[in-house]
């Protein structure tokens, strides 16, 4: 009865319900109108995402239940450099492009009515990455660079254009703010509280542009402000 | 494929995905193992909840999809005094008892395997309520009293015992902490950040006692820590 919004991505999605996270902010925003469904998988790249997508989004028996929207937020792990300490997560740019195309095609086929919203990887603060490696890193070189993340971000935008869907250019957006490195990221990669606010604001804004907002969605049941104090039960007659 | 935990209640549930809320903390805790589904309805009492319960939890066509657990968190509005400014939300104690019994019976019938977890209303800080009335209050008297909330809390515990299910005695638990009025409540009724932490901790603890925890639930897909860097795709073969 209440529609859903799926959040599909890597750790930046998986941890989006942590303190002040963009996922919980969306859930709070749509508290009476839509369910936020978390499908975040730490460390995953588009290659692995594509491998598991049928399991993550099983076909329902009745074929119904199309979500309102799906956010697709991959690329930060694909962009790990192939000759650095997180190389096992790296996916070449060409394959990233193919994989993201296939992911979009999957959702378009499964739920033609759903709004698909791509989010580019965030920019990378390389200095901070040296302090927070996922695996031991004695090389003195970060496993990700901002330049590489930018290449994947640009490819993500190109794919959105090719597929006729929208994208949030987080990589560019965040870097417009002086001090983005510490303001928006907590370890050079994952979002700070303010970084979470940026993503929340961008997602809400894009959904609204596509007609998914509190103005267009109806609460499933009367709001307290709509209930007549003199005859409350009348509100529930329909 | 991934099981659910439903949160059914009034405004203290509806706003549980706000900043640091107990709902978002649960969603974050179970990020890879269970979906938290928000069904909070600001201002609702057990009378209205019972009126809408079939709409809130429609029978699924295939009859499947039983949630792991359901939290039932009503009583704060039922306990509004019948002769004060929020009287339209008041439900007499006897009817509250019948209604809560009926709500529990509904869930037991619909999903016999689900853990049903009652939560009592929180204690009331009457001074703060005078500063934060929901409707205009010129009487100088709070619309809720701590004593009345306590009566509903005791009834809630009695119902849990009668139904053989568990309950969290939030009313008593919170008052064990000196300064609970400001520490756990932000307006004499709704939860502060620390109050949200109390509810999160209690729910997690009770679920764990009943066998619902990260130790017993399995992630649907491999964790990054389980993926062999030398052959990542092998992890997805099953």
Automatic annotation (TrEMBL), chains A, B:
SUPFAM superfamilies: SGNH hydrolase (SSF52266)
GO molecular function (one): hydrolase activity, acting on ester bonds
Domain of life: Eukaryota
InterPro entries, per the entry: GDSL, Iah1-like, SGNH_hydro_sf
Keyword Hydrolase applies: yes
Keywords: Hydrolase
Gene3D superfamilies noted in UniProt: SGNH hydrolase
PANTHER family tied to this protein: ISOAMYL ACETATE-HYDROLYZING ESTERASE 1, ISOAMYL ACETATE-HYDROLYZING ESTERASE 1 HOMOLOG
Similarity comment: family membership: Belongs to the 'GDSL' lipolytic enzyme family.
Gene source species: Buddleja alternifolia
This protein's name: SGNH hydrolase-type esterase domain-containing protein
């Amino acid at each position: 009865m209440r529609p859903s919004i799926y959040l599909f991505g890597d750790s930046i999605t998986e941890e989006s319900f942590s303190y002040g996270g963009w996922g919980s902010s969306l859930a709070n925003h749509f508290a009476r109108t839509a369910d936020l469904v978390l499908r975040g998988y730490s460390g995953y790249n588009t290659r692995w995402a594509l491998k598991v997508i049928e399991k993550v989004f099983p076909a329902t028996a009745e074929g119904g239940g199309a979500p309102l929207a799906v956010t697709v937020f991959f690329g930060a792990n694909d962009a790990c450099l192939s000759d650095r300490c997180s190389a096992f997560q790296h996916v070449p740019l060409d394959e990233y492009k193919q994989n993201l195309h296939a992911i979009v095609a999957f959702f378009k086929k499964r739920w033609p009515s759903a709004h698909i919203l791509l989010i580019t990887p965030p920019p990378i603060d390389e200095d901070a990455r040296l302090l927070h490696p996922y695996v031991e890193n004695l090389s003195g070189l970060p496993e990700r660079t901002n330049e590489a993340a930018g290449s994947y971000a640009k490819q993500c935008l190109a794919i959105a254009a090719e597929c006729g869907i929208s994208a949030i250019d987080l990589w560019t957006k965040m870097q417009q703010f002086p001090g983005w490195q510490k303001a928006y990221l907590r370890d050079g990669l994952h979002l700070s509280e303010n970084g979470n606010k940026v993503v929340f604001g961008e997602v809400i804004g894009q959904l609204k542009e596509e007609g998914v907002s509190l103005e267009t969605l109806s609460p499933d049941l009367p709001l307290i402000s709509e209930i007549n104090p003199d005859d409350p039960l009348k509100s529930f007659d329909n």
